Amino acid sequence: MSSSSAMGKPVAVAGSLTSTPGLYLLYKLYELKQRCKEDRSSNSEGADDRKSMTEKELVQLNRKIEKLLRKLDKYDLSEPVLCKEDECVVCMNHRATICTFPCGHRVVCRKCFVRTIQIALSQRLLPLRCVLCRAKIVQLSQDEKAVLSPPSAISLADDNL
């Protein structure tokens, strides 16, 4: 079940945004996209200042993504893949744990999902899309068997993607 605030912002459904690193990054991408949208619609003199600030935030977000990827490399908690249907379609080494909605595909591991966010951010390919069917991602959840923390989900308003 997805939910959103009156402002159309993403809302954590079952857990906090920080319980799954990829969900936090997705939320930050959403915020940056909203700022870019506001910059384009504004014709005031402050638009250049906001654009400069957004670019700085993008650089900071890229640094955070790199740091997260290093931590994921260092603390690899992934379970072994028991059957081919459970493996990540990107790296084929880890168990697919991130489920995208509305399509419902569970085909990527946490690390590959974070890399997908990184690529989308660097190439300005928003909204994020499922790596299998290319459908817009409006909600995420993480397989509860894959991590020690409780499962979580995030929902994004469709009209803002």
What is the beta-strand fraction? 5-15%
Helix content, binned percent? 25-40%
Q: What structural category characterises the helix and strand content? A: alpha+beta
Calculate the mean pLDDT score and round it.
73
Overall spatial form: globular
Q: Span from first to last CA?
A: 18 Å
Uncertain runs are 1-7, 10-15, 146-161
The CATH class designation is Alpha Beta
Write down the CATH topology: Herpes Virus-1
Global Rg = 16 Å
Number of domains: 1
CATH superfamily: Zinc/RING finger domain, C3HC4 (zinc finger)
Major sheet size, sense and barrel closure: 5 strands, antiparallel
Main-sheet strand order equals 1-5-4-2-3
Number of DSSP E strands: 5
User: What is the element string, with H for helices and E for strands?
Assistant: EHHEEHEE
* Helix segment tally: 3
At CATH level 2, the architecture is: 2-Layer Sandwich
Tell me briefly what this model is.
The chain is an alpha+beta fold and 161 residues long. It contains 3 helices and 5 strands, in the order βααββαββ. Residues 51-78 form a coiled coil.
Walk me through this protein's architecture:
With 161 residues, the chain is of the alpha+beta class. It has one domain: Herpes Virus-1 (2-Layer Sandwich). Helix content is 39%, strand content 10%. The two termini are 18 Å apart. Residues 88-134 form the RING-type domain. GO terms for molecular function: zinc ion binding. This is RING-type domain-containing protein.
